[in-house]
Amino acid sequence: MENITILGSTGSIGTQTLEVVEKISNEFRVYALCCRKNIDLLKKQIAKYKPEVVCVESFEDKKALENEFRNTKVLFGSEGILELAKDKKTDILVAATSGIVAVRAVIAAIENNIKVALANKETLVMAGEIVMKKAKQFNTPIIPIDSEHSAILQCLNTFNNPYAKRLWITASGGPFLNNTREEMKNFSVTDALNHPRWSMGKKITVDCATLVNKGLEVIEAHHLYNFNYDNIKVVIHPQSIVHSFVEYIDGSFLAQMGVPSMHIPIQYALLYPKRFEGIKTNSFCPFGKTLEFLEADFEKFPLLNLTIEAGKQGGILPAILNAANEEAVYKFLNKEIKFLDIEKIVFEQIEKAQNIINPTLDEIFEADKITRQKINLIKA
Ligand code: MG
């Protein structure tokens, strides 16, 4: 039995991870759970999975939980998360919480040789170089949960395959694939949240509509698999059945296919390199009749290119882009700005940015903080 710790247990990936763990309960035990504010759901999870440790954001919630669950150790705040991330009783840390706190936690786990199943985007986008260097130094595996990176790992069969030439990352194209820029101008929050294939959190769903998400995934793939940006391609695949593919030097392409369910990449990350029974598909061919592959439209979705460019430049630019985008998306979700204002805000921050090459972690976090402050000073 392996002990599993989930950071972000009440979120979309966290709850699905618990569903997977339940199915393969002979392999895993829920050791610790961590969430920010969804205490009602956390209480249900404590009652059901009986973790030894939990961690919440506030001291008040910690006190209340301690009174209710006498046998559970309760930590709180970012110090609590770090303590949890270093806890040697954990065999696998699932990093499914958003934000900087996850970056520090992942680094702490790496330094303590605790295998990381990574769903948090910021870790590799903001601090990919630092994180991968540490992972190498401490020989700690980082297994991606994201469906595209999971597909690539499955096609590469290892982290360093000398015969692999290019990575092809598929994108559904989001809800606005067939709309013009003119139409996109007036799209509402409801339109943007109407993702055709995947059910995910709100922020990432908007990132799929702008294709920022795909740019961020290119940056992650660059760090995870040590591929040059020129050898990572984006291809639109509206059916979301092929989750990515790898091109080999002899002209072969290996693709990973599956129904669009996060259960598959989550289970793969937890068990890697083993496999276990999972989603059952009954029909003769569960993938429909047609699979399309289209070129990405960089003009219609300029943030895709900007994100990849920020990755190429490196330094603190990916952190600035990530922060600017996140703040802009929250403004859009709060109906303070229009859909296309997201890209306006992000472009502005990148154009004004002063890059720092080989930044320290503190410099990266500072860039994140300052960018967010600047954007929140702008009145819509
Ligand atoms: Mg993805």
Overview of the molecule:
- With 380 residues, this protein is of the alpha/beta class.
- It folds into 2 domains: 2-144, NAD(P)-binding Rossmann-like Domain (Rossmann fold, 3-Layer(aba) Sandwich), CATH 3.40.50.720; 149-313, no CATH class.
- 47% of the residues lie in helices and 16% in strands.
- A 7-stranded parallel sheet has the order 4-3-2-1-5-6-7, with helices on both faces. A 5-stranded mixed sheet has the order 11-10-8-9-12, with helices on one face.
- The mean pLDDT is 95.
- The structure holds magnesium ion (MG).
- Magnesium ion is lined by residues 146-148, 217.
Main attributes?
single chain; binds magnesium ion; 380 residues; globular; five-stranded mixed β-sheet; alpha/beta; Rossmann fold; seven-stranded parallel β-sheet
Give the cofactors and ligands.
magnesium ion
Q: Write down how many β-strands occur, each being a DSSP E stretch of 2 or more residues.
A: 12
Task: Spell out the helices and strands N to C.
Answer: EHEHEHEHEHEHEHEHHHHEEEHEHHHH
Query: Order of strands across the widest beta sheet?
Result: 4-3-2-1-5-6-7
| Major beta sheet summary | 7 strands, parallel
Q: Whole-number average pLDDT?
A: 95
- What is the 3D form? globular
Count of separate DSSP helical elements: 16
Number of domains: 2
